[in-house]
Amino acid sequence: MKKIFLFFSILAALLLNSNLANVFGWEDSKLTAALLLLTLFLAWEFITRNIRLSKERMPEILLLILGVLIYIFGYLDSVNLFRKVSFFIFVPYITSIYLDTQGSKYKKTLQWCIFIALAIEIGMAVYERITLEPLIADEEQYRIMNKEEDEWSFRASALYGHPLVSAMILCVINVFVLYSDFSKRFKFVALVAILVALFCFNERGNILIALLVAIVYFYRTLISIRPLFLRVMYILAIVMAVQYSYNILNETSMGGRLFHGEEIVDDSALYRLEAFSAFDELDKDILLWGFRTERVELENLTYAENGFVNILLEYGLIFGIPLIIFLSYFVFKKVWRYKNTGTLMIPLVFFGIGMTNPHLANPLQWMYFIVCYYAFRPSEFKKSLP
User: What's the angle, vertex CA 304, arms to CA 114 and CA 25, rounded to 5?
Assistant: First the structure.
């Protein structure tokens, strides 16, 4: 019974999002209800079970303490930050503490949650790319993303209404699956499916990062193949497959902006380079304390194409800097025990994409990181922790 309740709780937390709220006209209270099941489940478990906060969970403890401080300072300034802090800090890291105490008990349950979300994302992306029509994207945002109105520049939006959000989620799932205990055949099939979806989202940076991770991971597998003749055969097959794929992408609209964009550094790349200019337009109060009530409409910038900058804009320098430090500590503490290159590649993917993606400041990305970690962490870890 617990597994079923946790399954639907996690699934609701991953799938119900602000895009659905906007498209279907739901109020904020409806979106908040997406986390209600998970909150009730966690509350019951912490009340009825003896769950201890040990030093092994220090990153989560530090984040929770910081979340309490942010809420208290907001309350003293007559600003209600409870919903904001709950979504970004309280629920995700209390979830992490709970799952950490359960070992591999809910591993299969979490895997099913991720695979269902992955299947929905890939299915919607492929359908939208074939029909060149978004299913549930916000119309105004869709027009901005696809302003060129030609086939090669089309960007699918899938469940979350924006290619950047969906592409980052798929890249995070991809790197965790690659460094999991699944068979290499399963990992290869998952990689191909995710790459197809990334081309549908038309996200160049995410495509290149996913390919880089795959090369690093499968290189070690390739050089370990014996005998030499078999290894050569595999290499020739890979070269032929790459050449064939290149020809298809280069000669058809599926190549998207990666193959058919006229400029390497276009407007979207320039937005990322100019992310830090966001601070030039802020007064001292917002710079220190962040957007405590509503996002301020800056003269030339509504958000920065950098997740770290967005965290600083949201929480100010006073709370944003320690928040970024604690979040980084959380990520590296989790992946430190991987025995292979996962220790490097997982944070490289997550933070690398986050530096070119505003949605690192979105609790959804962190929720996916947490669920993926506990769903796919390998059975064998390093014994020592930092």
Answer: 55
